[in-house]
Amino acid sequence: MPYLTDDLAHTLPGPEAPQKQKIYWDGDDAGRSGSATKGFALRVTAGGARTWIFAYRARDTGIQRRPRIGAFPKIKAEQARKRAQALAVDVEMGSDPQAERETKRKAARIAELIERFDEEHVSRKRPATQEEYRRVIRLYIKPALGGMRVDDVTTADIEALHRSVSKRGKHQANRVAAVCSKMFALALRWGMRTDGKNPARGIERHREHARQRYPTADEMNRLFAALDAHPDQPSANAIRLLAFTGARRGEVLGMKWADVDVIGGTWSRRAADLKGNRDHAVPLAGVAIDLLQAIRGEQSQKGRHVLPTFVFPSASSKTKHLVEIKRLWRNVTRAAGAPDLHIHDLRHGFASVLASKGKSLPLIGSLLGHRSALSTQRYVGLFLDSQREAVALVSEAFGAAGKTTPPEPPAPTPVLPFRKRRKKA
What we know:
By secondary structure, the protein is an alpha+beta fold. Helices cover 44% and strands 8% of the residues. The protein has 15 helices and nine strands. The protein has helices spanning 6-11, 77-92, 97-106, 110-120, 127-145, 155-166, 170-189, 217-229, 233-245, 249-253, 287-300, 326-335, 345-356, 361-368, 384-402, and strands at 21-25, 40-45, 50-54, 56-57, 64-65, 68-72, 260-261, 266-269, 280-283. The strands form three sheets. Strands 1-2-3-6 form a four-stranded antiparallel beta sheet. A three-stranded antiparallel beta sheet has the order 7-8-9, with no helix packed on it. The protein has a two-stranded antiparallel sheet with strand order 4-5. The termini are far apart.
């Protein structure tokens, strides 16, 4: 058998009919004793295609394999021979290169994991949570990792993604890391990642502090004036109702008429729609009831015999209700001179009004739908006025006691002079 070279590879003939291919094994010429590489060969097809291959038998299974190294002349003879020698070393150490290559080729990709993650995990969440998950995946995770295999993603890849998103916002970067962690945890459970490791576990996240921004009475007056002047009144009504109820944005936007008792003044919210995952009834009063009656009256006047399912319907949304009010909020807060105000700050403002009136933390927590008393602890500082009044009562009581006239002290006992004794003569 000839020693395979580039010049020889050009001249070796193809197979004779009816054969479809012919294999030329690497051998030893007279002047090249001991230089051949066992298993290294050139495959020539009837169409003239020439490909370097390496034949071996897997040590564990005994299966004979002939993986492709590369096409000639793109891959030169000596390059192919070195690759064959490296594969021979792997085989000798117990590896099965072709089986590993096939396994890697069939390995799940991030795009497949994202699809299953959405179908089996995200779809079970509340609408607002689904929206947030999908936004994070669409904007950050898929562009960075979408073309990779699930097994190939490393902790360094997740850290790089976290650093990249951190330039836009630390809070958002932490959300990306959290979604990645959950996604790869499920990949392990589903067998889509085979090394038993979650690459997103242990990623150091940014420290987050609870926001302590509360809208003032003056800011709320300017905000409502800006809402009155805005052309999109249905969306403006949603923001008004957020302020009147202290509910979360997704809860108000997904409000259903079937859950609202305008006459009785109650909004019965179901566990499936709430962050706390338990049923919660919200009392409605005053301006909130008036606003809902006005919305219902306007929807009835549009010729509808049956009210829409949602209080804030939307024909352009997959959820069939309003889901996006960020642009409106940005416009009205700028018009109100409070551009740093967040939508969730309306919920804080709701709690601040109750706290300023001396209402207890348990009562505030029940109205906000907090599942744990710890969630309401952030509002402790809002009781400063009530606490100051309470301390003033103590000061007044003790101050009055301190101003009473003390009794006259007893007169001091007179001190008699000391008489010395006379010495005897």
